[in-house]
Amino acid sequence: MIRVILPQHLRTLAHAGSELTLEVEGPVTQRSVLDALEARYPMLRGTIRDHVTQQRRPFLRFFACEEDLSHEPPDAPLPDAVASGKEPLLIIGAIAGG
Questions:
Q1: Residue 98 domain-assigned?
Q2: What angle do CA 15, 40, 72 make, to 5 degrees?
Q3: What is the per-residue pLDDT across 6-62, written as a single tens digit (0 to 9) for each?
Q4: 41: Cβ–Cβ under 8 A, 6 or more apart, which residues?
């Protein structure tokens, strides 16, 4: 089971708690985790990544094991601690403004 922590606004949209668990088939990558997340919570489609390009939305970041994975290729394997369920994949809403 993969653990995912969403920002508050996406938790509200998904009607979910602070931590979600997902079953991911095959290699554990950003793409496979987001595919599983959107399959289980279809209301999140288009909120984390663009519908057409599948690129990460600009004001969201991905973190795991104290590393920023936001600019990693979507098919790069996530750390073993995430794949084993030891550590969660955090999806964080970035803050901007002045």
A1: no
A2: 100
A3: 999 999 999 999 899 999 989 999 999 999 999 999 999 999 999 899 899 888 999
A4: 14, 16, 20
DSSP line for 33-97? HHHHHHHH-GGGTTTSB-TTT-PBPTTEEEEETTEE-TTS-TTSBPPHHHHTTSSPEEEEE----
Tokens of 85: 């369920």
What is the Cα–Cα distance from 17 to 95, expressed in whole angstroms? 22
Domain count, the chain: 1
The letter for the amino acid at 46 is G
User: For the domain that residue 46 is a member of, what is the CATH number?
Assistant: 3.10.20.30
Closest CA to 13 of 47, 63, 61: 47
Q: Name residue, tokens 């994949």.
A: 89
